[in-house]
Amino acid sequence: MTSTTASAPEALGGKPSATPLIEMRGIFKSFLGNEVLHGVDLVVRAGEVHALVGENGAGKSTMMKILAGVYRPDGGQILLDGEPVSFEHPLAAQAAGVTTVFQEFNLLADRTVAQNVFLGREPSNKGIVDSAKMNSDTTALLKELGMESISARTRVGSLSVAEQQIVEIVKALSQDARIISMDEPTAALSDVEVRLLYQIVRQLQARGVAVLYVSHRLKEIFDLCSRITVMKDGSLVRSFDTDTTSPDELVRTMVGREFSGYFPPIDPQTQLGPVRLQIRGGGNSQVNKIDLSVRGGEIVALAGLQGSGRTEIAHGLFGIEPFTRGEVFIDGKTSTVKSPRSAVRAGLALVTEDRKTEGLALRQSVFANARLVLDAVRPFGSAKDVKRIPGLLSSLELSARGLGQEVRYLSGGNQQKVVLAKWLVTDPKVIILDEPTRGIDVGAKRAVYDAMRVLTKAGIAILMISSELPEVIGMADRIVVLHEGEIAGELAAGSDEESIMTLATGHAPVGQLANGVQR
To answer: What pTM was estimated for this model as a whole?
Structure first.
């Protein structure tokens, strides 16, 4: 990954003010006697997009929640326009023009866009809610952001994730927001939706709104942000201008490791084995003519735009929406997977893209989560396998207070390690990883990548789905690119992003054979 020049404020449509809009000085915070913030400083200016970065557990979320009025600091001071302020409640922060868009949206799915935007603040006429004004005011705000395609009368539950995020931003603007904090805003967005968010952020900056941007995605930071503040272990490490640093330096500042060492190299002793997974002419209502194979010890990546059929292939293999055409072979034997249970028994494992809603029971313990699949498919005779769980978690370098700790209190990276352990205890032949590092920090990503290399060395076949092209290029032995439900082509390891996107967008000429492309 290389730095871009688009981060300069002038390139984004507005120049930040030299005067701080919000200052957090010497912020301390403790929970149950454990100090998690150690005198952190943060300065954000009007019209500035400011990145707040660091590994999970660095204290970013705590800082955001203090700024949003969710938590009160134990020490330090917050200044707004140079004047001391104290936010006793999120409503007090919102009244001062400070709002936060969290990963989990605060929206009511069965109500309209306008009803959500003005929830609790509905305009009235003689004691009756003035729906006409509410709709017209919401429409005007949407128009200001260039989002006329979204109707104020549309039910929020029918909107895409990106459109729901826009509703949250419009809600903030309706409250005269002067600073908007965004927590991992692109975690669940497609490439097209990410570009839409870029447009919105630039519109906000042009209006003089300050944006505090929390993300693990380095490209977004260098595309959008003019300043970066790095936190580690509850302390401020450094603040600097984006155009004075590089991805290498930023990663080194966050985790003490060069970006060039981000993806572990292939162990030369890893031997590719026989084909463990093969699909011939696979298809269902969403994908068609799927021919691919994965050998033991190999990582094959599925790349493509959102909706291209990547996850649908995983669901077809795993019996969530079984293939209705073609054949599937596991270790050379015909497999007729019709349900997830039969998929597990056939030797497949699926690490889903949303670990919180699909992969974990958040209020259960680490140990209970690690045995979830085992208990479902081997209820009589899994005692020996259960005894392997502590060792598996240890080999994945899980950081937790103990096996009895509730999973919801773990960082995203450690939650992902529990999900991996849940599947590894079933001794799978093929592991399907759908967005394996979504929403986890750069240090935890490296731990997942290391685990993938260990698995392939043990002869397991990995089918990886990822929207992060550096991850695809850095980890895959082969890259299969999809477009509109069909395979557009195949690329060799180390291919560039342009080659992948040419296939993903359907722009590669028929019969092209270049840069490893096979058509």
So the answer is: 0.65
